[in-house]
Amino acid sequence: MRDLMGMMKQAKELQDRMQQMQAEMETIEVAGSAGGGLVSVTVTAKGECKAVRIDPSLVKPEETEILEDLIVAALADARGKAERVMQEKMQALTGGLALPPGLKLF
Q1: CA–CA separation, 10 vs 17, rounded Å?
Q2: Overall pTM surpassing 0.90 (yes/no)
Q3: What is d(CA 48, CA 29) in angstroms, rounded to the nearest whole number?
Q4: What domains appear along the chain, each with residue ranges and CATH number?
Q5: Pairing relation of β-strands 39-44 and 29-34?
Q6: What are the subcellular locations of this protein (predicted)?
Q7: CA 31 centroid distance within chain
């Protein structure tokens, strides 16, 4: 019975830390870029786009399609970085807690 109480306490602590981490993910920002830095985006670790920066040299009507592709690439770069940050935070949060493989808590 004592082990069950300990596990329940540990689960509650993990839940509290998860809530704190989710709030923190909204404040952590990562930058992604494409085209050698001509297009950059800033997203939160949760993937919310906060800013897009486009080098003025790209703003040419005949190159609109290239610009659109670079924005998509920069967002993908930022999203990948955000996912890595979230994974690192999750690993630090769960520490030695054995979670089933593939379990996503959020």
Answers
A1: 10
A2: no
A3: 9
A4: 28-94 (3.30.1310.10)
A5: antiparallel
A6: Cytoplasm, Nucleoid
A7: 10
